[in-house]
Write a structure and sequence with these properties.
Elements lengths: L1 H28 L10 H10 L9 H19 L5 H27 L6 H15 L16 H21 L7 H15 L8 H8 L1 H20 L8 H26 L6 H18 L9 H5 L1
Helix pairs in contact: 2-3, 2-4, 3-4, 4-5, 4-6, 5-6, 6-7, 7-8, 7-10, 9-10, 9-11, 10-11
């Protein structure tokens, strides 16, 4: 009897051990899971890209973009990334950075005062992000959602540069040219973002006055030129220039107020031009004096 009980207990123990082992294997160990094959270099690059965050002055994003871009380029050069991995990393990096850059730039354009160092930083940053190329040599930025915003920033920068150049105009070319420049100044003054810049608007307001003054200096130069009639070879040449300069004075008199909003009395310029023309006539066509003798006088 005792032997039977021992056998039963031994069998029960064996069943428990085997069953417990099977249960542990099924519940704790289970079937093996597939291991994800992740390139450690990709992980490092993604970590570097994640540091490109917003900053009030854009210095930090620039710095971290440079580091991330340098890291990806290093991995590329050393064949530690596949072409697909490289392109994906560059796309993520450029999209993140370009979005921050566009947002920061447009915020600066919304201010009443623009600072030269900010504009310089924008151009350098845009050049840097545009330089990133895919494995096929194409520009990464062209496929980014932020591409349109970056191009908008470029257009604003170009328009601002052109507007500033326009405010420094100091040479008269023609009435039609003056009209075009004044019209362009008005367009820039009301353009989105440019219209926020207080200093630029004030300088654009001065364009008609600057062109008017340049027109007057041009006419004064024409009259001054007539002063040198002795070097014009003939009265025919003098007459040709006199008629041209006289017509230009007449044109100014007729259109100045409408074109520039200003008008000066140019009667003095016209009198001076007429005086030089008269002197030239006397120089090229001196009065004929009689060369007769006393016999001619009396007989």
């Amino acid at each position: 009897m005792r032997t039977f009980i021992k056998v039963v207990l031994i069998l029960a123990a064996v069943v428990l051990v085997v069953g417990g082992s099977f249960y542990f294997a099924m519940t704790r160990l289970g079937p093996p899971h597939p291991v994800e094959n992740v390139n450690e270099h990709v992980r490092q690059a993604k970590k570097a890209i994640a540091t490109i965050l917003s900053s009030p002055d854009m210095d930090m994003p620039n710095r971290y973009f440079f580091k991330a871009n340098h890291l990806v380029a290093f991995l590329d050069d050393n064949h530690l990334l596949s072409a697909e991995e490289s392109d994906q990393l560059k796309a993520e990096m450029v999209d993140r950075y370009a979005t921050l850059l566009a947002k920061w730039s447009l915020e600066r354009f919304g201010a009443p005062t623009w600072y030269g160092e900010d504009l310089t930083k924008m151009r350098k940053s845009i050049t840097m992000v545009k330089a990133v190329k895919q494995s096929d040599g194409k520009q990464v930025l062209s496929n980014s959602e932020a591409s349109g915003q970056i191009e908008q920033v470029v257009d604003i920068l170009d328009d601002y540069r052109a507007a500033r150049s326009l405010t420094r105009v100091g040479k008269y070319e023609s009435v039609r040219s003056s009209e075009r420049l004044i019209e362009k100044a008005s367009t820039y003054k009301s353009a989105p973002y440019l219209s926020n810049n207080v200093d630029l608007r004030r300088e654009l307001d001065s364009v008609p006055r600057r062109l008017h003054n340049a027109h007057l200096r041009y006419l004064e130069g024409r009259v001054e030129h007539m002063k040198h009639y002795r070097w014009m070879d003939s009265m025919e040449n003098v007459d040709k220039l006199y008629n041209q300069y006289s017509d230009e004075i007449t044109e100014y008199d007729a259109v100045a107020q409408n074109v520039y909003g200003y008008h000066n009395n140019v009667a003095g310029l016209r009198r001076q031009l007429d005086d030089y023309h008269k002197e030239a006539d006397e120089y090229y066509n001196p009065p004929q004096h009689s060369s007769g003798n006393l016999f001619d006088v009396f007989f």
